[in-house]
């Protein structure tokens, strides 16, 4: 085991974690919408959702690397599309309340974390990401040393969570721009979620 190799896998993981955090998707849109509607205490728990949802995804991807069937991804896509519609409906319900923003809670919302975990699990993106991009790198690291594999995962999730929290803080500050701006941003988030839901359902149904 060499320090350069450890550092190399750590940095590779961090780079991919940052990329995963800023890549637009239903999960990121939901996290932003929660931050807009309830402040950083509502959005921050969502940033930690991948820590709870990714373990079975990584395990499945490593066991079936490059062998995930199209039908499996289609089923996940359909389920993800339906759940994205549910999240869009929740955001639309908040938008319908008018321009008065709900108060920022003084405690974290465990419900937002649960919904974030489901949004991540019911999304084909992480399965494809871990089977085609991160999975091969993780396997290569593990073949050299379990320590290198741990370095890759540490870099990935540290950077992903920190980047997601930064996104949460940025968009939670948008509440200071005034209720009308946030109201418009919530509507945009709802529309984006509906679009993602349509894409997932279309791919799942028609392939």
General description of the model:
The chain is mainly α and 207 residues long. It has one domain (3-206). The protein contains nine helices and no strands. Helix 2 packs antiparallel against helix 9 (179-206). The longest helix is centred in the last third of the chain and has 28 residues, at 179-206. It starts with a helix and ends with a helix. 43% of the residues are buried. The mean pLDDT is 84.
Share of residues in strands: under 5%
Count of domains: 1
Structural class: mainly alpha
Distance between the termini: 44 Å
Shape: flat
Q: Please give the count of helices.
A: 9
Largest sheet: none
Ranges where pLDDT stays below 50 over 5 or more residues in a row are none
Query: What number is the mean pLDDT?
Result: 84
Number of strands: 0
Order of helices and strands: HHHHHHHHH
Helix content: over 70%
Query: Rg to the nearest angstrom?
Result: 18 Å
Map the helices and strands:
Elements: H1 3-22, H2 26-38, H3 40-47, H4 49-63, H5 70-96, H6 110-121, H7 124-144, H8 146-172, H9 179-206
Helix pairs in contact: 1-8, 2-3, 2-5, 2-6, 2-8, 2-9, 3-6, 3-8, 4-6, 4-7, 5-6, 5-9, 7-8
Keywords:
single chain, 207 residues, 9 helices, flat
